[in-house]
Amino acid sequence: MKKILIVEDDQLVATAYRKRFGEAGYIVEWAPDGLEGIKMVSTIKPDVVLLDLLMPRLDGIEVLKYIRTHPDLKNLPVVVFSNSYMTNLVESAWRNGADQCLMKASTTTAQLFDAVGKAMQKAEARMSGATTNAVSVGTITPLARPATGMAPALPMPQQAPTAPRLAASSFNAPISPLPLRQSVAPGFGATVASSPPATVPERAVPAPMPQMDPEFQAQIRQLFLSGASAKLASVGDAANAFIQDQGSSMQFPLLVDLFRKVHSLTGNAAVAGCSGIAHFASTFEAFLQELQQKPKFINASSARTVRRSVELIEALFGNSETEGGERAKPAPVLVVTGETMSSQTICMALEKAEIESVIANDPAQALSLVASGSYSSVVMMINLPGMNGFELCAQFQTQAAFGRTPVLFISELKDFEAHSNPEILGENEVMASPYLLIELTLKALTQVEAVRLQRYSAAA
Fold first, then answer.
1. What is the reported pLDDT for 321?
2. Could you count the other beta carbons within 10 Å of the beta carbon of residue 230?
3. Which end of the chain is more exposed for a tag (fewer CB within 10 A), N or C?
4. Quick check: 132 pLDDT over 70?
5. Over the stretch 173-226, which tens digit does the pLDDT of each residue have?
6. How would you class 81 by CB atoms within 10 Å of its CB: exposed for 0-12, middle for 13-18, buried for 19 or more?
């Protein structure tokens, strides 16, 4: 009988996976943090480890390093759980010997068991001295590793605060390897961001997979939703403390506390089957993590982003009935910056949240596209050639097709306070440049989700 060690700090997530693997015939052990994980991996000698990367006391990377440098453990198969936005951590996991990397917020039971089977196959190959250049299956491992000898395929620049005109030094990773399929809108050369091509699948490995237990899944979901009020209050209190302590010595510890609470929310939502909440929370979590790494971006704009994100999470919980069944694909986002590289960079940020985007090269083209198509949101610079963003927005609103489409304005930081005036913004949003790309992703996703909820409420 195979033994699996689950190293995971969230009890609800661990409970769900312990039951699933127990039903499949595994002996299941659980370590609630990285330090306990190191102790237990040395004593119980598991056959495979399921490892979360973000944990208190000791993170998953340190656990992975310990396993790979320990003579008795170096061939142990390790499946890593993370967030697809956390490119630096995922890259580090691959480099330190992870066999598979999965996105916690969207991995199904079938994908998890398949990944465990593949990890065990790779471990057997290592022990037998065989070599393998197999590529992880794209649909099973969204955090996919390319063939040996290449750098890990991280789908987003590791450091790209904004468009080149604002921070040229931020483009340490080139844009060109990140594929953008060119698609032509009627009469224009509009760009549509699409997913990179799938990797070549490796040979399937049989792995025991239990049948879904609807009753247990319903219990987990009910437990998650019944605790929503307390969890939302906890996240809200942490967010308010962070926002109100602008510039104080306590703001960074408060940011870390907020991040941990949102991290827990992401994992809980994933195992409860609330994919919409999990997807949005994972984006919010990634933004908070990057703010910790780059605290110079903590300002009035990022504080506003935190507030709006918490409000959207509350709205998602309030409409949890929308979580059932297939989620309709949102309409694309229209991007209007007046600069090709800036627009393409924004498209890549949107692609990370699985949002398609269309580029308008100038205000005239934007008006034509709005007249002939439907969009979830418009992302535009306030400073545009020929007219400013507010003037263009006013012209959009004369188009019947535009309706109440929300606009995300990109302002200069020095003008942010004036541009964030509710009398100027109305129902639209604003963020300041320079900014983190993940903040742009989060802001746009907030608007897209808000539109979806409005349409659901109107149809109900």
1. 64
2. 9
3. N
4. no
5. 322 223 333 332 333 223 222 333 333 333 333 344 445 567 777 888 888 888
6. buried
Closest Cα partner for 265 from 231, 289, 227, 237?
Answer: 231
> CA 51, 53, 58, 62 torsion: positive or negative?
positive
Amino acid at position 140, single letter:
I
Answer whether 407's CB lies under 8 Å from 427's CB.
no
CA-nearest of 360, 341, 396 to 187 is 360
Q: What is the pTM of this model?
A: 0.76
Residue of higher predicted confidence among 274 and 186: 274
As its CATH architecture, domain 3-128 has: 3-Layer(aba) Sandwich (3.40)
- The average pLDDT across 4-14 equals 91
Q: Which residues pair with 429 in a beta bridge?
A: 408
In the chain, CATH 3.40.50.2300 sits at 3-128, 168-197+324-459
List the single range of 35-39, 319-323, 366-370 with lowest mean pLDDT. 319-323
Between CA 374 and CA 356 the distance in angstroms is 12
Write down the mean pLDDT value for the chain: 80
Residue 30 has pLDDT above 70, yes or no: yes
pLDDT band at 54 (very low <50, low <70, confident <90, very high): confident
For the 214-320 domain, the top CATH level (class) is mainly alpha
For residues 330 and 195, give the distance between their C-alpha atoms in angstroms, rounded to a whole number.
15
